[in-house]
Design a protein that fits this description.
Blueprint (H helix, E strand, L loop, with lengths): L8 E5 L3 H12 L4 E5 L2 E5 L9 E6 L15 E3 L4 H8 L5 E10 L3 E7 L5 E6 L4
Parallel strand pairs: 1-4, 5-8
Antiparallel strand pairs: 2-3, 3-4, 6-7, 7-8
Length: 129
């Protein structure tokens, strides 16, 4: 099997979904889409193509546990420049733990921050030529 995208969906745990929504909307300049179910609250990242990779912030009591050290590391798209997003992180209540760092000329740049919920999240951007 060959995948178009290795990731099809991701969920970022929250302790306070409204605080997390405000943080991510602030650093990316987006409006998230609310989906509240009986056992789960979600704030979905807007995407252009419903067949593309999507994800959301999630709150479901003890089912999700934010972590700055454990679990997978999700890389969010910060094109065209990681620094444009990173510059908003601390003002929005987050903490930068890895500043903008070049991976390689062909693979672009990355950075890592801790969000308002205590999650370790990464950014990635490939400069356009």
């Amino acid at each position: 099997m060959i995948f178009k995208n290795a990731i099809s969906w991701f969920e970022i745990p929250t302790a306070d979904i409204n605080r997390a929504q405000k943080f991510y909307e602030s650093i990316f300049g987006i409006t998230m889409i609310a989906l509240d179910l009986p056992q789960l609250q979600m704030r979905m990242f807007p995407i252009e193509d419903k067949m593309g990779v999507g994800g959301s912030l999630c709150y479901a009591g003890e089912f999700y546990k934010p972590s700055a050290t454990d679990g997978p590391l999700v890389y969010l798209n910060a094109n065209p420049d990681v620094q444009q997003v990173l510059d908003k992180v601390e003002a929005a209540g987050g903490k930068i733990v890895v500043p903008k760092t070049q991976i390689s000329p062909e693979h672009g740049y990355m950075a890592v921050f801790i969000d308002t919920e205590g999650n370790r999240v990464a950014l990635h951007a490939i400069p356009q030529s």
